[in-house]
Amino acid sequence: xxxxxxxxxxxxxxxxxxxxxxxxxxxxxxxxxxxxxxxxxxxxxxxxxxxxxxxxxxxxxxxxxxxxxxxxxxxxxxxxxxxxxxxxxxxxxxxxxxxxxxxxxxxxxxxxxxxxxxxxxxxxxxxxxxxxxxxxxxxxxxxxxxxxxxxxxxxxxxxxxxxxxxxxxxxxxxxxxxxxxxxxxxxxxxxxxxxxxxxxxxxxxxxxxxxxxxxxxxxxxxxxxxxxxxxxxxxxxxxxxxxxxxxxx
Length: 249
Hints:
It contains one helix and 23 strands. The strands form six sheets. Strands 8, 9, 11, 12 and 13 form a five-stranded antiparallel sheet that branches. A five-stranded antiparallel sheet has the order 17-16-20-21-23, with no helix packed on it. Strands 2-1-3-4 form a four-stranded antiparallel sheet, with no helix packed on it. The chain has one helix at residues 181-185; strands at 4-9, 12-17, 34-40, 43-50, 65-70, 72-73, 76-77, 80-87, 93-98, 101-107, 110-119, 125-127, 131-135, 140-142, 152-157, 164-169, 189-190, 192-195, 198-204, 207-216, 220-230, 234-239, 245-248. It has 249 residues and is mainly beta. Strand 20 and strand 21 form a beta hairpin. The protein folds into three domains: 4-50, no CATH class; 65-142, Immunoglobulin-like (Sandwich); 152-248, Immunoglobulin-like, CATH 2.60.40.
């Protein structure tokens, strides 16, 4: 399959496809710095920034990883559902699956939190314990979801109303909105309110997490950050005692 090659400039976009030998050309490009972005279903997307006078470029595609596996409930394949791949940084990838098997390819190297939710023929929704996986270039990794472990239930007692509580796999430094906080929180988990003043994060795998709480104003955001280490199974509960850091939006 030919791969779309995209060249972006200030507000303008040109798209072309490679020839069988891998070459491509874009006509009518105005002078100035440009970014070439390349996408293909078999490789992770990549980009190259061109110098102002540069007229030729070679883009090397790095091999991505493949993640696949079975999804079963009570020993039977789950009919359909979705898989969410949450990186430590960047956007969440969501893909559907069917007949008890999933496959994700062209995944950039990195550490991910994998979340699976399925639906059986009688409409019962199955939520599986989330799993962490580290992928290297060219890896082919099998990760099955068969409900063998319940994971850890984390409950956070929140002393104030209207606070957002987010959980990020791994260690993420304290930052504000201008540093890209909201974008990075999109790769994490947002607590679900299970009763007044309590946010719940069910079925978490063991490991290190960063918890963020936010209190938003009209033109500012206050942020609290703390690190957590969760066991493989069991219940963890604590009361949030925020130490706020103020940021202008």
